[in-house]
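2024-03-11 09:14:02 DEBUG pipeline.ingest accepted 1 chain
2024-03-11 09:14:02 DEBUG pipeline.ingest length=116
2024-03-11 09:14:03 DEBUG pipeline.predict start
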Amino acid sequence: MNFYEHTIVARQDASKTQLKQLEDKYSSIIEKNEGKILQKQNWGLINLAYIIKKNKKGNYIHYKFQSKPNVVNELEKNEKLDKNILKYLTIRYKKLDLDTNYFDNSVKEESSQKGK
């Protein structure tokens, strides 16, 4: 089994219930195909580097999971058809870093206090 990080960028006008449905949908795809979700993070609404399908911002959902390669194919096949998703990215790793959360506010506050 391989380790993966998978990030989904959803439309900026998606409601909280739509985002929750997206999270649940793709979590269930991973679990149905014998994958194991190690971590799931909702990074929130973030500015995009460029406009995608008339959207300046996107809701980011990030998964860290362990599975066989066929799960990635199944995820991406479903994401191509989903109109609420702007972009997605999957990266395979030999080992995952589950300790560092780059979008956690407390980590940013600690690093800014150290600089004072």
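2024-03-11 09:14:41 DEBUG pipeline.report Residues 10 and 19 are 8 Å apart (CA to CA).
2024-03-11 09:14:41 DEBUG pipeline.predict end
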